[in-house]
Each structure stands twice: as structure tokens, then as C-alpha cells.
């Protein structure tokens, strides 16, 4: 009985001692980490000092790095980009299967919004935005991207 009590007390002491220890591992430095699993959905994760990639064997996946979040198609080409534009505002770009921009949604320098739609030949055909004076603006171009019509919302 005394041996059993001693074993229980020593075990309890060991658990208390281990539980009181600092769990912080400090800094861990590696060149990259690759995680592979046997699941059907996004089985690969690769991290390095610049980015995190989560992707499937087919090539489609998610990229986080260089100030953008990108969704890639099966050819590993960016299909959707989410990031920050030159003025520090938000930016979303959607590309077509030819790798050309089809839609661009962003903020303007003055803090308003802007939506640009491009055709399959990568020519801008519609532009909706707010002006520097905070009025609405619609611009329509022809299939070549040449100016066709515009309307300012200012009364």
C-alpha cells in the first residue's frame, strides 16, 4: 500500500512539475515547411519566409504573400487577387481563362470606389466610379476600349 501511495504521489508530482514548466518554445527558424496529407481537398501546404501556399495536386489553391491573397486555377495561374492598391486602399482583380483582367474593383485616390469591366480582348468597356468631387461617373467604351459615352452624376 505504501508503495502504491508513493507511486501515485511521485506521478502526481511529476505531472505538476511538467505542467508548471514554460510551454514557449522560443523562436523556431526554418527555410520552409511543407505539409502533405492524403485528403482529397487541398492536400499540400507550403510555407516559407515570403508566402503560404495551400494547393491541390491539380494546381488550384490559395496563395498568401507579397501583400496579396490569390486564388489559383488548375494551371496555377491567378484567377482572383485580393490586395492593396497603390493608394493604400483595397483591390480585387478577377481574371479570365486567358489570364487577362476581366474585372477590377478598387478604391480611388480620393477614397471612393471604382469598378472597371474589361472585355475578352482585355479592353476596358465599362468604368463606374466616384469623381474627385464625390459625384458618380459612368464611362462606356467600344469593344476596342475607345471612348464612347460618359455621364457624370453632378446636377
Per-chain topology:
Blueprint lengths: L1 H19 L11 E5 L7 E5 L2 E5 L5 E5 L2 E5 L5 E7 L5 E6 L5 E7 L5 E6 L5 E7 L5 E6 L5 E6 L3
Antiparallel strand pairs: 1-2, 2-3, 3-4, 4-5, 5-6, 6-7, 7-8, 8-9, 9-10, 10-11, 11-12
How would you explain this protein's 3D organization?
- The protein has 155 residues and is mainly beta.
- Helix content is 12%, strand content 45%.
- The protein is built from one helix and twelve strands; from the N terminus they run αββββββββββββ.
- The protein has one helix at residues 2-20; strands at residues 32-36, 44-48, 51-55, 61-65, 68-72, 78-84, 90-95, 101-107, 113-118, 124-130, 136-141, 147-152.
- It has a twelve-stranded antiparallel sheet with strand order 1-2-3-4-5-6-7-8-9-10-11-12, with no helix packed on it.
- Strand 7 (90-95) and strand 8 form a beta hairpin.
- The chain starts with a helix and ends with a strand.
- The model has no long low-confidence stretch (mean pLDDT 80).
What are its keywords?
1 helix; twelve-stranded antiparallel beta sheet; mainly beta; elongated; 155 residues
Average of the residue pLDDT scores: 80
Assembly status: single chain
Instruction: Kindly provide the radius of gyration, computed on alpha-carbon positions and rounded to a whole number of angstroms.
Output: 27 Å
Order of helices and strands: HEEEEEEEEEEEE
Largest sheet: 12 strands, antiparallel
Number of strands: 12
Class based on secondary structure composition and strand pairing? mainly beta
Q: Outline, from the CA principal axes? A: elongated
- What order do the strands of the largest sheet run in, or round the barrel if closed? 1-2-3-4-5-6-7-8-9-10-11-12
Strand % is over 45%
Low-confidence stretches at least 5 residues in length (pLDDT < 50)? none
State the distance separating the first and last CA atoms.
95 Å
Amino acid at each position: 500500500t505504501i508503495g502504491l501511495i508513493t507511486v501515485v504521489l511521485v506521478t502526481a508530482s511529476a505531472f505538476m512539475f511538467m505542467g508548471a514548466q514554460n510551454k514557449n518554445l522560443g523562436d523556431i527558424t526554418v527555410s520552409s515547411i511543407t505539409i502533405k496529407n492524403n485528403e482529397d481537398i487541398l492536400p499540400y501546404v507550403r510555407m516559407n519566409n515570403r508566402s503560404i501556399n495551400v494547393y491541390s495536386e491539380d494546381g488550384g489553391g490559395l496563395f498568401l504573400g507579397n501583400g496579396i491573397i490569390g486564388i489559383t486555377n488548375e494551371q496555377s495561374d491567378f484567377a482572383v487577387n485580393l490586395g492593396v492598391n497603390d493608394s493604400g486602399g483595397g483591390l480585387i482583380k478577377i481574371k479570365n481563362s486567358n489570364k487577362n483582367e476581366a474585372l477590377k474593383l478598387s478604391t480611388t485616390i480620393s477614397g471612393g470606389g471604382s469598378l472597371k469591366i474589361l472585355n475578352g480582348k482585355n479592353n476596358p468597356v465599362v468604368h463606374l466610379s466616384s469623381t474627385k468631387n464625390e459625384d458618380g461617373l459612368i464611362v462606356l467604351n467600344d469593344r476596342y476600349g475607345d471612348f464612347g459615352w460618359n455621364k457624370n452624376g453632378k446636377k
